[in-house]
Design goal:
Serine Threonine Protein Phosphatase 5, Tetratricopeptide repeat, 163 residues
């Protein structure tokens, strides 16, 4: 009709019914909830007795490692505030900070630093999170760590400058 604004496409009854009938996914493990970034379910799973530092069988990651890997910042904060161990390492010697550096998860890396992550921790090959960020080309992660005051003397020995 002339003079009447077109309200745009309307949803059919079926589309409305479909969207209201969607079921919320329930995760079976603390690791799944963290990978999905679902803090509510993470909280519920921990309330039911899950260990904050539980290591998954396949990757040997804790929930904090998975939060750093997937960039689940809200889950990472929740885990840290709830007492998750930021010093726990994988079988390769990686802390959550190592994983955040490898993945270029800058916000997670910054949160770990603010919460006291030790950036001088070396993995099983002697690499720190700074080494891994550089190796993987994550320049902003490097800047975050350097601005945090990470000790660079232990990272580069003077003899390495004279190759």
């Amino acid at each position: 009709m002339p003079g009447v604004a077109n309200p745009g496409p309307s949803k059919s009854r079926r589309e409305t019914a479909d969207s209201s009938s969607r079921k919320k996914v329930h995760f079976s493990s603390i690791h799944d909830a963290v990978r999905a970034g679902d803090v509510k379910q993470l909280s519920d799973i921990v309330e039911r007795g899950a260990n904050l530092n539980e290591v998954d069988a396949l990757h040997q990651f804790t929930p904090l490692h998975w939060a750093a890997h997937s960039g689940s910042l809200e889950c990472l904060h929740w885990l840290l505030w709830s007492g998750a161990d930021a010093t726990q390492t994988t079988t390769r010697g990686w802390t959550a900070a190592h994983i955040a550096a490898i993945r270029g998860q800058d916000a997670c890396l910054q949160a770990l630093i603010i919460n006291g992550a030790n950036l001088a921790t070396q993995d099983d090959r002697g690499c720190t999170p700074l080494h891994l960020a550089a190796t993987h080309g994550h320049s902003f992660s490097l800047q975050i760590m350097l601005r945090s005051g990470v000790e660079t003397e232990s990272i580069l020995k003077p003899s390495e400058f004279y190759l």
